[in-house]
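Exercise 7.
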Amino acid sequence: MRYERRAVARDGGFSTRAEDGNLYIEGYFAVFGSEYRMFENAIETIDEDAFDETLDGDIRALVNHDSTLVLGRTAAGTLELRADKVGLWGRITINQADGDAMNLYERVKRRDVTQCSFGFDILDQSTEVLENGTTVWKLRKVKLYEVSVVTFPAYEDTAVEARRRDYEQIRKKQKEQWRAGMLARLKGA
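Solution. The predicted structure, written as tokens, is:
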């Protein structure tokens, strides 16, 4: 099994909330079944069970995947994560004494920042090539390290390059299978 550090980004539909003297940022860090288009003819989706065995770990909430800008942490009780029928939902309790966290809170509140992402390793996945040539990878099981509120919703370059290599290998295998089938037909097999 291949393990890769990856990040998937999307619009999180984040909202801010003030309650009982606390400030929160909350929304979905991943939506099950949504298509994350990596490049032409390359899509990733997330299975409903992908997070089942990873949410009890010590996961951080970051800004733009920057480990120096920690917004919350499950072990500290300042990050709550749960998988429901929609996807991976999270709520970050904002540290009001942290200027960076307060700045982000205000940016989310104004809707200047609305995207999210998560960093993970792939533990199990399936691959399907559709009739139109599109390759679909379904993430079945991941190890989650962090969730991030991000400025730009784009795959990290390493994730796209890893999928491009996978895509090229799939295409190469298809051509080899086609060639072998044609040779067998020509030989009358």
